[in-house]
C-alpha cells in the first residue's frame, strides 16, 4: 500500500525520521520544491512531504503525493491549537470534519462560510470511512471538527469566538487544503492533530509544547500505520 503523509513543519518531521530510521529509507530528496522522504516498511511505501505552514503548500503537497507518488491514502498529521477547554496540550484527536473559515463566497452565492458547492459548511470525512478503515487503532481516538485557515490563532478570545462560530474543537492551517485536494482526487484522507496550545494558551505555550507535541505526532503516526521498525 502507498501512503502519503503531509507534515507542515520541520520540528514535526524530525521525530518521524528518527522513528522510521535509515534502515528502510529509500528516498530523501527535493521533489517539485518539497523536501520528501520515502520508506519501505513491511508491505507499505510511506512517503512523507514537508509542506510548510498553510493551506496552499498543504494542497500542493497532497496533490503531489497523489500524482507523483501514487498515494492510495493521505495522512495529515501535526500540531494544532485547542479551541475548547477539553482540548488540552498533547490531546490527540481524529478529525471527522473541517470548517474552512477562510472560504467565504457568501456575498455572491448566499452559501455560509466554509461551504463549497454541493456541500454544507463542513468538509466531512464520512463515518463509514472510519468503520471501514484498515488502520483500526484510529477508531479509538476522539473525533473532532477542525477549523482551518491561513492564520495562527493565538488570542483566547479569537479561539472561543471561532469555536462558537464553527463548533470546532481545534484549529490548524493545513487540514482544509489536504482534505479538499484528497477528496477531489478520489483518495481517502486521515487527519490526526495533536494539541500544542490550549484555549487560553498562545504562541508562548505553543513554543514550550512543540517538541513534546511533535514527539506525539511521530508515535501516533507509527501506531496509526501499524509499522514495525
Labels describing this entry:
229 residues, alpha/beta, Rossmann fold, five-stranded mixed beta barrel, 34% helix, 29% strand, globular
Describe the structure.
It is a single chain. The protein has 229 residues and is α/β, with parallel strands linked by helices. The chain has one domain: Rossmann fold (3-Layer(aba) Sandwich). Helix content is 34%, strand content 29%. The chain is built from seven helices and ten strands. The chain has helices at 10-20, 55-67, 106-109, 127-132, 156-166, 175-185, 203-225, and strands at residues 2-7, 25-31, 34-41, 44-50, 73-82, 92-100, 123-124, 143-148, 170-172, 189-197. It has a five-stranded mixed barrel with strand order 5-9-8-6-10, surrounded by four helices. α5 (156-166) links the parallel β8 (143-148) and β9. α1 (10-20) packs parallel to α7 (203-225) and α2 packs parallel to α6 (175-185). The chain starts with a strand and ends with a helix.
Amino acid at each position: 500500500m502507498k501512503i502519503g503523509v503531509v507534515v507542515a513543519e520541520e520540528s514535526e518531521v524530525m521525530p518521524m525520521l528518527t522513528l522510521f530510521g535509515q534502515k528502510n529509507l529509500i528516498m530523501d530528496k527535493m521533489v517539485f520544491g518539497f523536501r520528501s522522504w520515502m520508506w519501505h516498511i513491511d508491505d507499505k511505501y510511506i512517503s512523507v512531504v514537508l509542506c510548510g505552514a498553510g493551506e496552499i503548500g498543504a494542497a500542493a503537497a497532497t496533490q503531489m503525493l497523489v500524482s507523483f507518488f501514487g498515494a492510495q491514502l493521505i495522512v495529515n498529521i501535526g500540531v494544532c491549537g485547542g479551541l475548547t477547554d477539553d482540548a488540552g496540550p498533547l490531546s490527540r484527536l481524529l478529525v471527522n470534519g473541517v470548517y474552512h473559515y477562510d472560504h467565504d463566497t457568501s456575498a455572491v452565492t448566499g452559501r455560509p462560510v466554509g461551504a463549497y458547492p454541493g456541500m454544507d459548511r463542513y468538509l466531512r470525512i464520512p463515518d463509514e470511512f472510519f468503520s471501514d478503515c484498515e488502520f483500526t487503532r484510529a477508531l479509538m481516538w476522539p473525533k473532532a471538527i477542525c477549523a482551518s485557515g491561513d492564520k495562527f490563532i493565538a488570542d483566547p478570545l479569537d479561539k472561543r469566538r471561532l469555536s462558537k462560530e464553527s463548533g470546532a474543537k481545534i484549529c490548524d492551517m493545513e487540514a482544509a487544503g489536504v482534505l479538499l485536494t484528497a477528496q477531489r482526487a478520489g483518495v481517502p484522507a486521515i487527519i490526526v492533530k495533536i494539541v500544542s496550545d490550549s484555549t487560553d494558551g498562545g504562541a508562548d505555550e505553543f513554543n514550550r509544547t512543540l517538541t513534546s507535541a511533535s514527539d506525539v505526532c511521530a508515535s501516533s503516526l507509527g501506531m496509526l500505520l501499524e509499522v514495525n521498525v
